[in-house]
Amino acid sequence: MEELFRQDSYLKTCTAKVVGADSGGIRLDRTVFYPMGGGQPGDCGCLRLADGTAVEIVDTRKGEAPDEILHIPAEGSALPPVGADVTAELDWARRHRLMRMHTCLHLLCSLIKGDVTGGQISDGKGRLDFNLPPDVTLDKAVLSDGLNALINGDHPVEPRWITDAELAATPELVRTMSVKPPAGQGKVRLLDIAGIDLQPCGGTHVRRTGEIGPVEVTKIESKGKMNKRVNIAFKV
Hints:
alpha+beta
């Protein structure tokens, strides 16, 4: 499986060949569809066949086999035959909103000095949970101003790779307590927001922070003695 979204998160379509199709989903030899993972939802869209008919894809998930990606068709859809040529087409507007929000959560990480205990990205909103001492207080207005200042700074956002050994030598790069970056493959993908945030991440992101647009911290919740949840959303 060639994961084109890891090479260029701005690819909206690609040609591909069906290598499997059953009740578990449709498997292609290459795809622009991101599978659910790391708090980011799987992509939606369609697979368009040579005769113009389209199979609606309502979700994308990882399969049981390494590098297996399952494109989940809408209920009742006719499955394309194995060997068929298709054009995979993203619901780009939704994916771009997810990219913007995912990148914004990295900015939030840069403003709060605590380990991340959980997180979730949704269409138009997102959240992160932080392990913080009980005496630490967070202010919605201060965080909102800080996020928008970083967004308006239009900082470059770039993926880069380091070896497993380099990551092992710099464990402070890993901010998440519950999810560790995959090891044993020889290299790990980092997301680098120049001078602001650097940590392992396999999700999709925008190229510059200015692309995120205005946001606000909508709610701060206590989820345990040392766990604070910060919710953010795009400003309408």
